[in-house]
Specification:
This protein is α+β, with helices and mostly antiparallel strands. The chain is 32% helix and 26% strand. It is built from five helices and six strands, in the order ββαββββαααα.
Length: 215
């Protein structure tokens, strides 16, 4: 479990597919809910366990002749930690990422999509945990020379896992890059992949005009 609070995770989640949002464990995601099916979804989950499964739509989703376009099978369950119910029926909500999951199958009997899921435990060995601090320092060094650096540094009190997941969500990355990071085996492999991604971006930024990485 990614949080210190014990949360009973349902094997069936309402899923919220978006083309540009990826949620990571332990990180917060604000959302504005305005479409009718998703208003119904939020109303239902507020009356229940307050859990929503965030998933990323696959590229080309807007050209699919279906009301349930393709999504990536790996997503992250989020707990509604804050809700503002607007007068016209819309919502402003904040999700806190809990655990990653894999979609096993979908149910389309409601106005919004439901999925039966299998939760993915981010296993870390003692060696992994010892290496996380070094991986965090490596990322911090890369960010000092990166255009993707956040405006405000993360507090030293934030855990190594929290920093790595927050960077994966908040850095100026493409949605497909965030999805690849979410699908990493655990936070240690995610830190390695994120460092490699930042190094590639730094090389691209420093390349002479007209010369790419493959020249």
């Amino acid at each position: 479990m990614s949080s210190g609070t014990i949360i009973m995770l349902s094997a069936v989640l309402p899923i919220f597919p978006l083309p540009n949002a990826v949620l990571f464990p332990g990180v917060f995601l604000p959302l504005h809910i305005f479409e009718t099916p998703f208003r119904e979804m939020v109303a239902d989950v507020l009356a229940g366990d307050r859990l929503i499964g965030m998933v990323l739509l696959k590229p080309g989703w807007d050209r699919e002749p279906t009301e349930s376009p393709s999504v990536f099978s790996i997503g992250c369950a989020g707990l509604i930690s804050h809700v503002e119910h607007l007068d016209d029926g819309r919502y402003n909500i904040v999700l806190r990422g809990i655990d990653r999951f894999r979609i096993l199958e979908e149910d389309v009997e409601r106005s919004y999509r439901l999925a039966r899921v299998d939760y993915l435990v981010d296993t870390l060995t003692a060696v992994d945990r010892e290496g996380l601090r070094q991986q965090r320092h490596r990322l911090e060094r890369l960010l000092t020379v990166s255009a993707e650096a956040p405006d405000h540094p993360f507090p030293s009190s934030l855990s190594d896992e929290g920093v790595i997941n927050a960077l994966a969500q908040y850095l100026d990355l493409e949605p497909i890059e965030r999805q690849a990071l979410l699908e990493c085996h655990n936070v240690s492999s995610r830190a390695d992949a994120l460092a490699e991604l930042l190094e590639m971006k730094a090389m691209a930024q420093s390349a002479p005009p007209g010369r790419g990485l493959l020249h």
